[in-house]
Specification:
Elements (H helix, E strand, L loop, with lengths): L8 H12 L4 H22 L5 E4 L5 H7 L3 E4 L9 H10 L8 H12 L7 E5 L4 H12 L3 E5 L10 H23 L6 H27 L6 H13 L4 H17 L6 H4 L1 E7 L6 H8 L2 E7 L12 H11 L6 H15 L3 E7 L3 H16 L4 E6 L8 H14 L1
Parallel strand pairs: 1-2, 3-4, 5-6, 5-7, 7-8
């Protein structure tokens, strides 16, 4: 397949596996695992081989879900299954305004198609956004069993007794979620401890891979790097297989050597935002000589294994630098910029997400005042090639940094 033949995200995955990364069995398996995630989970659920729930797939509910014997299926992964039909369903049937976030509309459209069959339970979170809160209520009316978590964040300066109150409240939320998942508030702490240990172990392995990529930036390009990190959230429903891929990828990176001059010509970048479905953006970055070496938005902080497991979940959320005020996120971004010696910052979000737009503009202004170059781009959640304007902008930005 030539780059000119690519028309869809699936085509990009095939191109990345067979053409760009043909030398890496581990990257090929990673791309296959991500591409088959939703379909494999739905098939296994329909055949009665697993219990599964739709999940936002970014928080403490993942270790809890696995410890409960249930597979979390990330509804954020449904973007690659979506098209204009999904958007039209959300706008025409559910009367979502056109300017509503494309991610919410695509998700609603996909759930609508699955009414009456398939996975019937959804974990939501009140912190997501108002359109998603509306989406969950609509899905409840359509027959889905929806559990919305009341997420708490730690504001700057909160400590002492107020912090302990937040911890106690979140522990209550964890037990209530366990009751929704299993029918009982009781949690098997031994199983939860195993999941926390697994999460910490995989975080360490992904950190190792990212460190090796800095030394060999072109071995693993931008697209599989994004899905390496996406997999760290849910393991694509197959934890053992995902971990085996990480082990093999570490071996490949440790035994491979970078091309002479790669470190001199590479343009290190930090990606801030959701994983875009318009895979052509990643290809444009790569072709212009850029490499996404730093990232914000993934769970790199370890859980405290010395604490009781439920408390460890709660304190991980409230101690996470990425939780709460956006000023926390600025600190995380600054750390990433320094760590990979980045020359530029790519801020990415979905069309119609007003919350994300405000946050990205705030970060753009903050780093602009520090003299650090950035680009703020918006794409769609559903499948489809990126616009020519977006590709022109991203290429020009990367080439400007050369």
């Amino acid at each position: 397949m030539d780059i000119e033949d690519i028309q869809s995200p699936r085509d990009y995955l095939i191109y990345s596996k067979n053409e760009v990364h043909h030398y890496s069995p581990a990257i090929g398996r990673l791309l296959d695992l991500s591409a088959s995630y939703v379909q494999d989970a739905e098939k296994a659920y329909a055949e009665g081989r697993i219990n599964a729930v739709w999940s936002r797939a970014t928080g403490w509910e993942i270790p809890l879900t696995y410890a409960s014997g249930i597979i979390p299926v990330a509804y954020s992964e449904m973007g690659r299954l979506s098209d204009l039909e999904s958007v039209t369903i959300a706008e025409d049937y559910y009367q979502f305004p056109q300017e509503t976030c494309s991610m919410v509309k695509c998700t609603v459209g996909q759930w609508h198609k699955r009414r009456g069959s398939g996975i019937k339970r959804i974990i939501g979170a009140s912190v997501a956004c108002e359109p998603y809160n509306l989406a969950w209520e609509l899905m409840r009316r359509e027959g889905y069993d929806v559990h919305a978590i009341d997420v708490v964040y730690r504001a700057p300066g909160v400590k002492g007794e107020r912090l302990e109150q937040l911890v106690r409240f979140l522990i209550e939320q964890i037990h209530e979620t366990a009751e929704w998942l299993t029918g009982s508030k009781d949690i098997d702490e031994d199983k939860l401890r195993v999941e926390i240990q697994r999460k910490n172990r995989l975080i360490a392995k992904v950190r190792k891979i990212l460190e090796l990529r800095v030394k060999n930036p072109y071995y693993m390009r931008s697209l599989p790097s994004i899905y390496l990190l996406t997999g760290l959230n849910t393991y694509f429903g197959k934890p053992a297989e995902y971990e085996a891929i990480l082990d093999d990828l570490i071996t490949e990176l440790e035994t491979s050597s970078s091309e002479k001059g790669d470190l001199d010509k590479v343009i290190p970048l930090v990606w801030v935002g959701s994983p875009g479905q318009e895979f052509g953006i990643y290809e444009a970055i790569d072709q212009a000589g850029g490499a996404l070496l730093g990232f914000r938005g993934y769970p790199f902080n370890n859980y405290d294994e010395t604490l009781p497991p439920v408390e460890a979940l709660a304190r991980h959320v409230l101690g996470n630098q990425e939780a709460g005020a956006s000023i926390y996120v600025q600190k995380v971004i600054e750390q990433e910029l320094k760590k990979v010696k980045a020359r530029g910052l790519v801020l990415y979000g979905y069309l119609g997400c007003s919350y994300g737009s405000v946050a990205r503009e705030m970060w753009r202004d903050y780093f602009h005042k520090k003299g650090f170059p950035s680009i703020n781009i918006e794409g769609t959640f559903q499948v489809g090639p990126p616009t020519g304007q977006i590709l022109t902008r991203i290429r020009a930005f990367v080439e400007m940094l050369a």
